[in-house]
Write a structure and sequence with these properties.
370 residues; 18 helices; binds magnesium ion; 8% strand; 6 strands; 3 domains; six-stranded mixed β-sheet; Rossmann fold; binds adenosine-5'-triphosphate
């Protein structure tokens, strides 16, 4: 309930036409609602006020209003972003795609679900090696739902000033709870990583408690996504807070083929050999190699055709960094080496091929003449 005092203050400030005072009264109204965990009311008030006010105080800046940041530092701790990334921009296994679609649909239909006493299950943890699309996954959900994403860099937040982390976390969760949004806790394993530092152990335990409590209390209108490369560091108390745990991994050959096709755009290239050559590489590295190759083919007048540059660059990344080539992979490398050699013998000398692949020129000689 709104207190009589606030209503009287509001009427008085309207009478005086004092804009500043009106702002203050409405702010305190919203804060009271938030303190009482009346997030729906707080959200409605914010939205209504934003429509009528020119200098509204909705979180439009990159840091929440009461975010304490008394220490000088450059690293990013927290950002609010809008995303235009859609489902078509991510390549996923069938299981992960299904979960993505389910989370989006459940969120869109959350009112209907709640009417029937069902939750929209909005807590998700993504785990897997670097560059496999965990952050991208969160941005796809934000883009599909048209809601902002609160991107929290947990590692920077904890390591920069542990003493203030608990307060800052509460503030971030409070702000996120009053908006329809995605709350992305990136580098989530940071809560476990700092455990070895015995000096900070007590403080860290408090931070973990605050974090888990806030996860429990989070409004279901906020989709919580945690992302980590180090799932083994997290204990069961953390895992059971999430409705979904998704493993993001390096992609299968057909999915790599789709990823390469997507990144090559309209370039008319047979991507089968590239898909085979890129086995074991993350989506991020594959994208990097493609961009590097596209740049070279565009800017370097003496560059060979794009297809050859791509094969060369994938070989450098995979064969060049692998001491022992396994069965299937070895076959693909041989195929690629033969392809390059056949396409241009004067450019792809045995020495040049040794440089690209790290395989001795005499071995390459034997391979090609077999
Ligand atoms: N499955 C994928 N589909 C499409 N693009 C991908 C995929 N995986 C990675 N990428 C590309 O690589 C970039 C980096 O991926 P992203 O940052 O999401 O990886 P991550 O798993 O969050 O890595 P990290 O663990 O290092 O934070 C993406 O922006 C995208 O361009
Ligand atoms: Mg990431």
């Amino acid at each position: 309930m709104i207190s009589t005092e606030i209503i009287i203050n509001l009427i008085n400030s309207f009478k005086k036409n004092d804009r500043q005072e009106i702002d203050n009264v409405i702010k305190s109204l919203i804060e009271t609602a938030e303190k009482r965990k009346q997030y729906k009311l707080a959200k409605k008030l914010r939205e209504t006020y934003a429509l009528t006010s020119e200098n509204h105080f909705l979180p439009s800046s990159h840091t929440p209003s009461k975010f304490s940041n008394s220490h000088e530092q450059d690293s990013k701790l927290f950002e609010i972003r809008r995303s235009k990334i859609r489902i078509g921009d991510i390549i996923l296994s069938d299981t992960n795609k299904e979960t993505l679609q389910e989370i989006i649909n459940n969120y869109k239909k959350r009112d209907l679900l709640r009417k029937h006493g069902l939750s929209n299950d909005s807590r998700l943890i993504l785990h897997g090696p670097p560059g496999t699309g965990k952050t991208l996954f969160a941005y796809v959900i934000a883009g599909e739902l048209g809601v902002p994403i609160y991107h929290v860099y947990l590692d920077s937040l904890i390591s920069s000033y542990l003493g203030e982390t608990g307060r800052n976390l509460k503030e971030i969760f409070r702000e996120a709870s009053t908006n329809d949004c995605i709350l992305l806790l990136d580098e989530f394993d940071a809560i476990a990583k700092h455990r070895d530092d015995s000096q900070e152990l007590g403080e860290l335990k408090r931070v973990v408690t605050v974090l888990l409590q806030n996860i429990d209390d989070l409004s279901p209108d906020t989709i919580l996504i945690a992302a980590t490369n180090h799932d083994h560091l997290l204990d069961s108390a953390v895992w059971r807070r999430f409705d979904y745990a998704l493993k993001m991994d390096v992609l299968s050959t057909p999915l790599r083929k789709s990823l390469i096709q997507m990144n090559l755009n309209k370039n008319n290239i047979d991507v089968s050999i590239l898909a085979e050559l890129s086995e074991g590489l993350s989506g991020a590295i594959i994208k990097q190699i493609i961009n590097k190759s596209l740049r070279k083919s565009l800017l370097d007048k003496n560059a060979s055709a794009l297809e050859k540059i791509l094969i060369e660059n994938f070989l450098i990344e995979t064969a060049g960094k692998n001491d022992k080539l396994k069965g299937g992979q070895r076959k693909n490398f041989i195929k690629a080496i033969k392809y390059l050699r056949k396409s241009d013998q004067s450019k792809y000398t045995f020495e040049k091929l040794e440089k690209i692949t790290g395989i001795s020129s005499s071995t390459i000689h034997n391979i090609i003449n077999k």
